[in-house]
Amino acid sequence: MEKKALKDLPLQEVTLRKYEEPKNLGQRELVKKFLLSIGLLNPGDSRDVIVDLFLLLLSARSSKKTLSIEDIVQNLSSIKGASKPNLRRQLRRLKEYKLVEKTLDGYRISEFGQIKSIIDAYLKEYLIKPTLDRIAQYAEKLDSDFTKSAKENQNQQTNNQN
């Protein structure tokens, strides 16, 4: 009979990093630290086209402009890794965090909204809070199971001594 390896696949994965306060940073560096902070970019990644993509979408937000995939590819064509398939993948990642949305006209920052509002309304409420709640459930179960085990071991030792 063949043994099947079980995979521990998470239902959801959230990576958070804390960096220094955002002072004296250029726009690109600010966007990069933000994306690093929420786990959409990893430290040391040399392929950081997502930074330029998000920067482009933030710049378009001020004029309430929606960008088609062709607009995005054209604007970022000089950047390494800015192929159409890669840009679509990065857009999908930004959409998963509700930072970007696709409309009939193209892509934009969600509802041309403020990033802090998006973080408060979605990231905190639907990604972080449920994850912390589940971790607390695991902690309670650990406390419960290991407290029982300790009491059972103590009772067994008492019975063996008698």
Account of the 3D structure:
- The chain has two domains: 15-112, Orthogonal Bundle (Arc Repressor Mutant, subunit A), CATH 1.10.10; 114-162.
- Helices cover 57% and strands 4% of the residues.
- The chain has five helices and two strands, in the order H-H-H-H-E-E-H.
- It has helices spanning 27-37, 49-62, 69-76, 84-96, 115-161, and strands spanning 100-102, 107-109.
- Strands 1-2 form a two-stranded antiparallel ribbon.
- The longest helix has 47 residues, at 115-161.
Which SSEs are present, and which pair or pack?
Elements: H1 27-37, H2 49-62, H3 69-76, H4 84-96, E1 100-102, E2 107-109, H5 115-161
Antiparallel strand pairs: 1-2
Helix pairs in contact: 1-2, 2-4
CA-CA gap between termini: 46 Å
At the fourth level of CATH, the homologous superfamily of the largest domain is: Winged helix-like DNA-binding domain superfamily/Winged helix DNA-binding domain
- Order the strands across the largest sheet as they lie in space: 1-2
Low-confidence stretches: none
CATH topology of the largest domain: Arc Repressor Mutant, subunit A
**Structural class label:** mainly alpha
Any guess at the CATH architecture of the largest domain? Orthogonal Bundle
Which key terms come to mind for this protein?
single chain; 162 residues; mainly alpha; Arc Repressor Mutant, subunit A; 2 domains; two-stranded antiparallel ribbon; 2 strands; elongated
Quick gist of this model?
The protein is mostly helical.
